[in-house]
Amino acid sequence: PLGLPAVAVTFDPHPAALLRPDGPPPPLMAMRQRVETLLGIGLDAVVVLDTTPALLALTAVAFYDEVLRGCLQAAAIVEGPNFHFGAGRQGTVEQLRDWSSRDGLGFAVVPPVLVAGEPVSSSRIRRLLAAGDVMAAAELLSAPYAISGTVVHGQKRGASIGFPTANLGGVNTLLPEDGVYAGVATTATGQQFPAAIHIGRNLTFAATTPTVEVHLIGFAGDLYGQPLEVVFADRLRAAQQFSGVEALTLQLRQDVAAASTG
Question: Taking the alpha carbons of 98, 100, 104, 105 in that order, is the dihedral positive or negative?
């Protein structure tokens, strides 16, 4: 109605990374993915604020005056019902509404989106991913859950039994519950392959370090050092320990068959 660009404002890193000693939980999206998603739903621009101690020390009224009014030149503000801002989360939606009204800014509060009668929230999505329910998480996200990283060298155990995997390092977003998943992997060149994805420790080989291993079905080549994105379609099974390589290989054949048709 105002004929002005619609702009989303976000923070990087998450304020909790500076405010809480233990830091925030891993994000659900990398910043690049978050920006692309916001632009993809129709926003004109995304402003990413550099989260610094100075920014977090601003009082609520200073954040409103200096950031929203001064820097962003906001003509209207849209927020959720539980929004807090300023040092110590002192600012409230009610204050923001009052200040906006005083200064002639448009103001609106968007109610939560409900799915199955419950609000969609990051904590609800996190609980689903912690249970391995990537299909239900995708329903709340309106898109399949995805992670990305860089292919690193692993133990090459998969290749030795006929199932080579790309080991994904540098994943900074939340990983679903340990287990085997069906999905799609996208390489740096944009090629897409159905994939069987193992998350967690390789129990059969008594591994102690959790990994993300992606078997790209139908791919042959070298991906070391290249970026790889993995989109989850469904969880095939929980992580489990097998009696030996033969039993593991038999199960992997079943996993790959399921991932190929999923």
Answer: negative
Tens of pLDDT, residues 18-44? 888 787 789 999 999 999 999 999 999
Decide: pTM greater than 0.85.
yes
Helix H, strand E, coil C: the string for the chain is CCCCCCEEEEEECCCHHHHCCCCCCCCCCCHHHHHHHHHHCCCCEEEEEECCHHHHHCCHHHHHHHHHHHHCCCCEEEECCCCCECHHHCECHHHHHHHHHHHCCEEEECCCCEECCEECCHHHHHHHHHCCCHHHHHHHHCCCCEEEEEEECCCCHHHHCCCCCEEEECCCCCCCCCEEEEEEEECCCCCEEEEEEEEECCHHHCCCCCEEEEEECCCCCCCCCCEEEEEEEEEEECCCCCCCHHHHHHHHHHHHHHHHHC
Looking at the DSSP bridge assignments, the partners of residue 77 are 107
Q: What is the pLDDT of residues 124-178, one digit of tens each?
A: 999 999 999 999 999 999 899 999 999 999 877 767 677 899 999 999 999 999 9
Point out which residues pair with 151 in neighbouring strands. Answer: 168
Asked if the model's pLDDT at residue 61 lies above 90, the reply is: yes
252's CB contacts (< 8 A; 6+ apart) are 161, 163, 196, 215
Q: What is the spatial distance between Cα 118 and Cα 60, in angstroms, rounded to a whole number?
A: 30
- Is the sign of the CA dihedral 242, 248, 254, 257 positive or negative? positive
- Whether 1 shows a pLDDT value over 90: the answer reads no
Confidence at 12, pLDDT banded by 50, 70, 90: very high
